[in-house]
Design a protein that fits this description.
The chain is α+β, with helices and mostly antiparallel strands. Helices cover about 15% and strands about 25% of the residues. InterPro entries: OSBP_sf (IPR037239), Oxysterol-bd (IPR000648), Oxysterol-bd_CS (IPR018494).
């Protein structure tokens, strides 16, 4: 998950143990602790060695900002970088398969929800030493990865940067043999708060259990870097996050507690799991980077939920660099990450600047040619009343593929047709970044399509089989078996005041005009407009109004300075 940059002159932290694409974590991020003068345990990964010159540079940058300022276009030096892209960093969410894979085998819906809560809390401890920010994905950047599970099955992950201003990182995960799918979009929003920097983590993830038909809507806590100008620098998670299952009415309100000036402790959590009527069933407590506990409020029994301090996580594997396309994260940022690893800040800065300058040049060229950009692997969510993803509007973008195989083998084949994921896998065809009509020509509705100019060949993107553009997104509103039959969903735990949206309806059988046609020399790609930014999902989100004026964004908005999103830091 993203981390914010911090500033402190003569401050001790460690840059020596950061995570690199070629040297991923193999153990817990909580390895050693030291004790402050006040007797408080603080983990070494919360400290960084910043020499006086670096401290002066950071202090100079931050001190010019006013409280409340937007940090999204602030350029920070490379010595505070985590050497991997945000698209790869999101995989922390799936890095504890021992908490994820057993969920679909649990018969009781309440205990299933408890297991989902455990899975959700298990990934927050994974972070590099110090207060670091991952690399900002460039527009159209892609990362794919996979997990080899102990039972011989695999998990598959695909992510793409679907927007740059505002930043949106969309991702898809699936473990077909375990009937698990995750769709998500991360939409950070940054603020400068004087002696702190805040990342307001908008966006949602939806965990789908395909054998029960349940969906679990998940939000994230906000992130803070304290003491960036004076005092002790500290990274904290804060505020509330929510888990909600509309099919059962169960919900969780999780509070990530920030430390007060005179009381409290770092990294504390608290919260409750509630039934459909709002009655508290379980109480949660502990620290998200150490031990977390759950108490059954019916029996009074308290037990360990998850021990982050002594649990190894499992990062994903990725294809070798020589098999990756030039806009895939690890290949794209390879020179930068290697320089950061060597602490060669001059090389890292130059390499990073070349990538970002190229992105600005591409945006300027598209704008001058009247060509608007569209994600390659994701499509707009079909929300609103009667839409196939009604109630899921906050995703904004969802994987542009029909995944409806009757067996796990067929599902795996469909996933691998979206983009190369496994070593040695060769996609069928290649094509450039999909283009859209210029905003000056967009006078029709969102569902209309027009002939558009092709992006120049130097903007070639990672390969995708052309036939994937024909597929529609699978609806997961009701459980289904791999043989094509419909399973019986777990009966909802009814609530008299429930306002959760109903299950999404099956997608239309005919291809909408807004969906891209197969790409060929005779049939160039066509796309519709982009959705407006969505709002943070609350426990029961209201449907977002359709605003035509917000749909008419062109690439001219991407020409401004676009380096750092503190939410991705």
């Amino acid at each position: 998950m993203p981390h914010l940059p911090g500033v402190s002159k003569h401050r001790r932290t460690s840059l020596t143990s950061a995570s690199y694409p070629g040297h991923r974590f193999r153990g817990s991020s909580i390895d050693e602790t030291r004790r402050h003068d006040g007797g408080e345990d603080v983990t070494k990964e919360d400290e960084t060695i910043i020499d006086p010159e670096q401290g002066n540079m950071l202090t100079h940058i931050i001190s010019q900002l006013r409280p409340g300022a937007d940090l999204s276009r602030v350029t920070l030096p490379t010595f505070i970088l985590e050497p991997r892209s945000m698209l790869e960093r999101i995989t922390n969410f799936m890095a504890h398969p021992e908490t994820l894979l057993p969920i679909t085998k649990i018969e009781d819906p309440v205990q299933r929800f408890v297991a989902v809560t455990k899975f959700y809390l298990s990934g927050w401890h994974i972070k590099p030493p110090g207060v670091k920010k991952p690399l900002n994905p460039i527009l159209g950047e892609i990362f794919t990865g996979y997990w080899d599970y102990s039972d011989g099955t695999k998990g598959y992950y695909i992510a793409e940067q679907t927007s740059h201003h505002p930043p949106k990182s969309s991702y898809f995960f699936m473990a077909p043999e375990h009937h698990i799918r995750i769709d998500g979009t991360l939409k950070p929003r940054s603020k400068f708060l004087g002696n702190s920097a805040a990342s307001m983590m908008e966006g949602i993830a939806i965990l789908r259990l395909l054998n029960t038909g349940e969906r679990f809507f998940v939000t994230q806590p906000n992130m803070y870097a304290r003491g960036i100008l004076f005092g002790t620098m500290k990274y904290e998670l804060g505020d509330h996050a929510y888990i909600r299952c509309p099919e059962t009415g169960l919900s969780a309100d999780l509070e990530f507690k920030t430390k007060g000036y005179f009381s409290g402790t770092y990294n504390a959590i608290g919260g409750f799991i509630k039934d459909a009527n709002g009655k508290n069933l379980f109480e949660l407590s502990g620290q998200w980077n150490e031990e977390m506990y759950i108490k059954d409020l019916t029996t009074g029994k308290k037990e360990l939920l998850f021990d982050a301090a002594h649990t190894k996580h499992t990062p994903p594997s990725a294809r070798p660099l020589e098999e990756q396309d030039e806009r895939e994260s690890q290949r794209l940022w390879h020179e930068v990450t290697e320089a950061v690893k060597r602490r060669d800040q001059d090389v890292a800065t130059d390499a990073k600047a070349r990538i970002e300058d190229r992105q600005r040049q591409e945006a300027a060229k598209r704008n001058s040619e009247g060509v608007d950009w569209h994600p390659q692997l994701f499509r707009r969510v079909r929300g609103g009343h009667g839409g196939s993803e009604e109630g899921e509007e906050d995703l904004d973008w969802i994987i542009n593929a029909k995944i409806d195989g009757k067996t796990p083998e067929e599902v795996v084949k469909q996933i691998l047709q979206i983009h190369a994921i496994l070593p040695g896998q060769k996609p069928d065809k290649q094509f450039n970044i999909p283009s859209r009509t210029s905003s000056i020509h967009r006078t029709q509705t969102n569902e209309s399509t027009q002939h558009v100019q092709q992006v120049p060949t130097e903007q070639v993107q990672p390969a995708q089989p052309a036939e994937i553009a024909q597929h529609q997104q699978q609806s997961v509103g009701s459980p289904s078996n791999f043989d094509g039959t419909t399973a019986h969903a777990t009966p909802p735990i009814h609530s008299s005041n429930s306002t959760d949206p109903s299950n999404p309806q099956p997608p239309p059988t005919e291809k909408p005009a807004s969906q891209p046609d197969p790409v060929s020399s005779e049939n160039p790609p066509k796309f519709a407009d982009e959705l407006p930014p969505s709002k943070l999902l609350h426990s029961n989100p209201a449907k977002e109004a359709h605003k035509d004026d917000l749909l008419r964004r062109t690439d001219s908005q991407t020409l401004e300075e676009e380096e750092f999103h503190d939410a991705q830091s």
